[in-house]
Design brief:
This protein is mainly α. Helix content is 49%, strand content 4%. A two-stranded antiparallel sheet has the order 1-5. It has a two-stranded antiparallel ribbon with strand order 2-3. The longest helix has 24 residues, at 88-111.
């Protein structure tokens, strides 16, 4: 009996030692299953950037007259020939990627009373979901990623916009809190600068009020929005590795060369001094801006100093956008003189060179002199033709056109076109790429159609406006 006891003791000790020897052998240090909230932040910010700057921006821009799909599947996209499966990856990026992790981050930030980090997460969530609902209309939000709800409902688009305003109000309060654990190193946008995050939150509020045509509240929010170019909400890029490159550069130069160009597009001709639709006049010289976006009448500028260059930061919300929200809303609410003053504020900013790379700001290549009332009177330089508009409508047309140019390459340009689509006297007259209808939304992805019984029935088609644009 003693002999068996000794053997069993040795066997148990051996098992224990072996267990310790192999403990953790299947756990990869390069594939963590959890992280502290600060560490999570950077990857979530990158996930949002990938959605705002990636393929959805390219498709929206092709449909908005900024680019042309030239070959392979992009030629089909150019002609509005898309299927639900084309949106699977983007939808997954929104929900399984960024949004799911945002919920975890918010919970962790709350548990350690890091109110400022919570506020940043809320702003990013608003940016993510605001863009998603603008593109798809009704989407899952209030029930998304509830463990006990396998088929989350599609919330009405107007309700989502309202929820985002509440979310951003909460974010602004949290960003102003003194309760926080520093996360400057993980914050790739503003390095922990709360003033810039608060201004971004207000510009996003103004953007989303604009989406639903609540011009009064958009005007109020924009007055507290991004106040200088230095405070722009930008996606940073560098040349350290492929994943850090500007996503347009990566697509145009490395991944899919020649799939997309600018040949014959409305956008390039609008700011090309030799184009057939050039918007310039004796007070406006667009050559520098044209050179910044396009390095010829056929090509996007993805050179080192171009808008689509390898290390060029990409705009997510900017001082330029905020100024133009002020201009449009003041014009609509308070009349011609108020709107003209706001537009001239924007033009004064452009006359400093604004966001254009300094490489292109040579003498004689840019000019944005202030307009006067006579320029918008019947027969004025901004209201010519056989069917002139009223002064206020001519001014609004100019503001909308300026927004169109400012948003080259951005999803917001596509959102803008659909918002003013029914105002045919002032909307930008983008030609059809194919057929006789403009796309009005993105299609619900096949992955969601297959898995979620709550998908709207009938499923809306490509040319059906989203609820806020009906």
């Amino acid at each position: 009996m003693k002999k068996y006891l000794i053997i069993f003791t040795i066997y148990a000790f051996t098992l224990s030692s072996c267990s310790k020897l192999v403990e953790g052998i299947n756990t990869s240090p390069n594939n963590p299953v959890d992280a502290d909230p600060n560490t999570m932040l950077t990857s979530i910010l990158i996930g949002n950037i990938a959605f705002q700057e990636g393929e959805m921006a390219r498709i929206a821009s092709m449909w908005n007259g900024y680019f042309r799909g030239f070959t392979q599947q992009y030629q089909s996209f150019q002609q509005y020939a898309v299927i639900a499966r084309n949106y699977d990856d983007a939808w997954q990026n929104v929900y399984s990627g960024a949004y799911k992790n945002l919920q975890i981050l918010k919970s962790k930030a709350t548990s350690v009373n890091n109110r400022r980090l919570l506020g940043v997460a809320q702003v990013v969530e608003a940016n993510l979901i605001g863009t998603a609902t603008a593109l798809w209309g009704d989407i899952p939000y209030s029930e998304a990623f509830r463990d006990n709800i396998p088929n989350p409902k599609f919330d009405p688009q107007t309700q989502i916009y309202s929820s985002l305003q509440t979310l951003l109000d909460s974010a602004i309060a949290n960003l102003s809190s003194t309760a926080f654990v520093a996360f400057a190193e993980q914050d790739i946008h503003f390095a922990g600068n709360m003033t810039r995050w608060i201004q971004t939150a207000n510009t996003l509020k103004a953007r989303y009020f604009l989406h639903v045509r609540d011009y009064a509240r958009a005007l109020t929010a924009a007055q507290s929005g991004i106040s200088t170019q230095a405070n722009n909400f930008m996606a940073p890029h560098n040349a350290s590795a492929r994943g850090a490159f500007n996503l347009y550069f990566q697509f145009l130069s490395l991944d899919r060369p020649n799939w997309m160009d600018a040949t014959g597009t409305y956008g390039v001709n609008l700011i090309n001094p030799t184009g057939n639709r050039y918007r310039g006049n004796t007070k406006t010289n667009e050559r520098a801006r044209w050179n910044f976006f396009y390095n010829s009448a056929t090509n996007l500028n993805f050179s080192a100093t171009g808008f689509f260059g390898q290390i060029s930061s990409f705009p997510l919300a900017t001082f330029a956008e905020n100024l133009l929200i002020l201009a449009e809303c003041d014009a609509r609410l308070n009349g011609f003189n108020a709107g003209l003053t706001r537009l001239n504020n924007y033009r004064a900013y452009m006359n400093t060179g604004a966001y254009i790379n300094t490489t292109f700001l040579t003498a004689g290549n840019f000019l944005y002199s202030p307009y006067v009332a006579a320029d918008f009177a019947a027969g004025g330089m901004e209201n010519g033709g056989t069917n002139p508009l009223t002064e206020i409508r001519a001014l609004l047309r100019e503001i909308i056109e300026e927004r169109y140019v400012t948003f080259i390459g951005q999803i917001e340009g596509f959102n803008d076109f659909r918002r003013v689509f029914k105002e045919t006297d002032i909307r930008v007259p983008i030609p059809f790429n194919f057929g006789a209808q403009h796309p009005q939304r993105f299609l619900y992805p096949q992955s969601e159609i297959d898995r979620n019984t709550a998908v709207p029935n009938p499923i809306p088609g490509l040319f059906e406006p989203t609820p806020v644009n009906r």
